[in-house]
Amino acid sequence: MAALRLALSVFVLMLAAITLSEGLRGVGPKRCCFRFNEKEVPRDRVIGYIRTSQRCSKPAVLLQTVAGRVTRHLCASPSAPWVKNLISYLDTKAIPGEMSSL
């Protein structure tokens, strides 16, 4: 009888630990990219960027672009040379202490 109680107690504690750890993970990333824009985006159309969450299956950069009054987000590969240059350009253009609107 004592062995059964011990086994049940261990099972309940393990279940509680798993439930707690899953609950602390949150609902997951807000945005992930699965396909990337291959064409280079003109600098004057990009107003900001953010990197996707590390929990996404593929690392990506979301570029916030404007064309007229329309704002869009494009997925780009962070390893693409044109994306690296664009990020460098945007970082030097940013005002210190100012946060991106993304």
From TrEMBL:
Keywords: Cytokine, Secreted, Signal. Residues 29-90 form the Chemokine interleukin-8-like domain. One of its GO terms (biological process) is immune response. SUPFAM superfamilies: Interleukin 8-like chemokines. Its main location: secreted. It is found in: Secreted. GO terms for cellular component: extracellular space. Residues 1-23 form the signal peptide. It comes from the Eukaryota. This is C-C motif chemokine 4-like. One of its GO terms (molecular function) is chemokine activity. The keyword Protein transport does not apply. InterPro entries: Chemokine_b/g/d (IPR039809), Chemokine_IL8-like_dom (IPR001811), Interleukin_8-like_sf (IPR036048).
